[in-house]
What we know:
Elements: E1 5-13, H1 17-35, E2 38-43, H2 48-54, H3 60-68, E3 71-76, H4 91-102, E4 107-114, H5 126-129, E5 133-140, E6 148-156, E7 159-165, H6 170-184, E8 190-195, H7 201-214, E9 221-226, H8 227-236, E10 243-246, H9 248-262, E11 269-278, E12 281-288, H10 305-319, H11 322-337, E13 340-341, E14 353-354, H12 357-369
Parallel strand pairs: 1-2, 1-3, 3-12, 5-10, 8-9, 8-10, 13-14
Antiparallel strand pairs: 4-5, 4-11, 6-7, 11-12
Helix pairs in contact: 1-10, 1-11, 1-12, 6-7, 8-9, 10-11, 11-12
Nicotinamide-adenine-dinucleotide binds near residues 265, 266, 290 and 342.
Amino acid sequence: MDKQAYRIAVLPGDGIGPEVMREALRVLEAVAVRFDVCFQFDEQPVGGAAIDVMGSALPEVTLMACEKAEAILFGSVGGPKWESLPPDEQPERGALLPLRKHFGLFANLRPSICFPSLAKASPIRHDIVGDGFDVLCVRELTGGIYFGEPKEIRDDINGRVAVDTMIYHESEIERIAHVAFNSATGRRNKVTSIDKANVLRNGILWRETVEAVAENYPDVQLEHLYVDNAAMQLIRRPRDFDVILAPNLFGDILSDEMAMITGSLGMLASSSLGKDKGGGLYFGMYEPSGGSAPDIAGQGVANPCAQILSAALLLRYSLGLTSAADTIDCAVREAIDAGMRTGDIFTGEKDTKKVTTAVMGEAILAAINEGN
Length: 372
Ligand code: NAD
């Protein structure tokens, strides 16, 4: 019988994007052999690289490749070369936002993992970080105050006035809450829902809706925190959190706070989920949390872990290849535990070695091939 072939749109983009994507594709090829599946990579230009050759950050051919795929593996876009273009033609606004909109990517999942052997890289006190933490931020991505109408700056009799509208439909809250509860199942079974129900009507509807969804998940513990308190508690006791569920604005801020306290941007993966394919699987776009890092691009020193862990999220959330995803996660952890460090996570600790992008990729590949 033919093995199942999964089509993946691969958009390396700019700066360190192509360098780290190369390692992620090698890792995917290795797990394909180990788990007897087949990946078809459809590689297309995006961002500045696409502007240079095709005149647009998101060419039609790239969008078509994404439409035909099960999921998108995205690198990063942008850089000084394209900063003088009109804002809507620049790599990020011209590619990333249209992709999110086109595919209705409503759920942003960002695992904030502080690996035990990288705990010293966290700016948080060692007695608080302990041997690390693992928090998943689930952020609503297509609603709330970022998109509500009216949204304008206008003149009135007292001068200029700015209006943004925070609006959530119950169905939007239900949809993202299911993603959070499903994610908590199989982790540590706890969801912390974030709102501002003491001030905002949005917060009241958010809280009531999340509580109703929670009834479908009796094994998952639900707690509510006001966003201001959550910002403090995440720093005071990050190890107590499992899944954080937040509306767009609050999730934007808290997920960056979590990224910061892990201490290593180059390790952080991210996924943006759209159409529900059934069985807990979604169409999605997977990318590192960081950008194109123009300061180190072309030097072969970028950390490929975020891109590789993004590929693992793709296998988990879009293809349902859980064992293959677990294998990648373990292999990254093994390489880190063995002392491999790219420049961004190198602190000179005993038994660690500063390595290039390719050597880090090799170490992860070796862990996969050795069968962790
Ligand atoms: P950045 O995330 O690219 O870089 C911030 C710092 O983190 C830099 O010092 C960089 O060297 C380091 N860094 C990031 N990823 C790393 C990795 N994998 N390994 C080692 N070090 C890493 O943020 P920036 O400098 O603000 O933005 C640079 C460009 O990237 C800009 O054009 C920006 O618009 C774009 N950007 C793109 C995305 C995206 O494609 N999703 C996201 C953020 C920024």
